[in-house]
Amino acid sequence: DKSGLAYSVGVTLDRFIKIKQEDFTFASGELSQLLRDIALASKIVNRETNRAGLANIGGAFGQTNVQGEEQQKLDVIANIRFMRALSKGGEVCAIVSEEDDEVIDLQNKSGKYVVAIDPLDGSSNIDVNISIGTIFSIYRRITPVGSPIQIEDVMQPGANQVASGYVLYGSSTMLVYTTGHGVNGFTYEPSLGEFFLSHPNMRAPQNGKIYSVNEGTYNHFDDGLKSYIQECKKREYSARYIGSLVADFHRNLLKGGIYIYPATAKAPNGKLRLLYEANALAFIAEQAGAKATDGKQRILEIMPSSLHQRTPLYIGSVKMVDEVAQYQKNNIAIV
Ligand code: P6P
């Protein structure tokens, strides 16, 4: 059947989206087009990201950047590119972006979809050439198409997502997304300008031996978390923390592991944002057989109360997320 063809490694993203369009009960054409718009913007951001270093020294070779103005920060450029692709695509009515304080109302009378996006997460890593990522969530608007955007359109729980994904600008550039029918990974071939299916039907290992947490703030962790981390050391797990959420998450999804950004006394809700970081990765995680909580409840169940609200994040292999929660519940003081 065509669906089997869809999973043959090497199929392009465009072809995959088209074949899998039957997965959507309605508005299939629009969601497919929206996914293509996001893929297009990620190709442009990929090019800008790879040029960033050169652009900075462009002057030395007599070039100026395309805008002919001061080289903008890459996350600003990424935001512009995604905003442009999403508004030109015609499917989106509103956008919540890490880069904009307010909701962006595209005044699009026919747009059915709302997008929450972090155009370039971890952009502080660009100058030191470490992988960075784009994270996005897609929702159907709640209020009638064509009516003014209401707050309930943009503040939906993660469980309402119709699709979510990330782009990892790493040693190779990958686009990984779900529409609620499993998770598929595509690798970009720049010479052809195409994403090719490289990781069909991604499934996370149920357990793992990699933990990702910034131990520099260990002294601010709750006792249960401290005990869990001590246990990881006793078991000689690998500590892997890149400082780029998408890169840490992607590696843990493939190899098994847990990423933790906890609440601390200094940051009672952690650091990561619910609407355009945690929700998207939580949807991917659950669709790949992994788990995502704020330490107490599923990320996807959290009812947002503000656009840029933060949430603690425990995400990765089910057994690891469950085990750290057990330690925190028992609040096992360090023996
Ligand atoms: P810290 C990057 O700024 C980011 O949002 C994530 O990509 C990353 O995992 C985290 O923050 C790093 O934060 O406090 O450990 O430097």
Structural overview:
- The protein is an alpha+beta fold.
- Helix content is 34%, strand content 20%.
- The chain has nine helices and 13 strands.
- The protein has helices at 2-6, 13-19, 28-58, 74-89, 151-154, 223-234, 245-255, 274-287, 318-330, and strands at residues 92-97, 104-105, 113-121, 132-140, 163-169, 173-178, 183-189, 194-199, 210-212, 238-239, 258-261, 291-293, 313-316.
- It has an eight-stranded mixed β-sheet, sandwiched between helices. Strands 10-9-11-13-12 form a five-stranded mixed β-sheet, sandwiched between helices.
- Strand 9, helix 6 and strand 10 (238-239) form a beta-alpha-beta unit.
- Helix 6 (223-234) packs across helix 9 (318-330).
- It is globular.
- Bound molecules: 6-O-phosphono-alpha-D-fructofuranose.
